[in-house]
Amino acid sequence: MNQDELKNLKADKVVDARGMACPGPLLEAKKAITAVAVGGLMEVLSSDEGTNNDIPMWAKKMQYDFLGVVEDAGFWRLFVKRSR
Predict the structure, then answer these.
(1) pLDDT per position as a tens digit, 11-59
(2) Closest to 69 measured CA to CA, from 27, 35, 54
């Protein structure tokens, strides 16, 4: 997906982990994904740059689809589709 497509996605669940240090955003994402239906979309907001590595690696391990990341004003928006 390109940046414009990602920016316009509407998530089923948004995890606002801005201000949390690693591993906080990942732990919050792990808890939140359970509330997302299979095929649903979760968006993680994080100001911790390490999350840009943690979320894609976790998504791959869990066999979810990591759709990409968008840099916003002082934080990142990461998109994960629950595929199972």
Answers:
(1) 999 999 999 999 999 999 999 999 999 999 999 999 999 999 999 999 9
(2) 54
Which amino acid would we find at residue 76?
A: W
Asked about 20 being catalytic, the answer comes back as no
Burial class (CB in 10 A: 0-12, 13-18, 19+), 15: buried
Tally Cβ neighbours within 10 Å of residue 20.
Answer: 18
Which position among 6, 9, 11, 22 bears the catalytic label?
22
Contacts by residues 61-64 (CB-CB < 8 Å, ≥ 24 positions apart): 62/33, 64/33
Place of tokens 């066999």: 63
The predicted model scores a pTM of 0.95
> Could you say which of 3.65.10.10, 3.30.470.30, 3.30.110.40, 3.40.50.10610 is the CATH number of the domain covering 3-81?
3.30.110.40
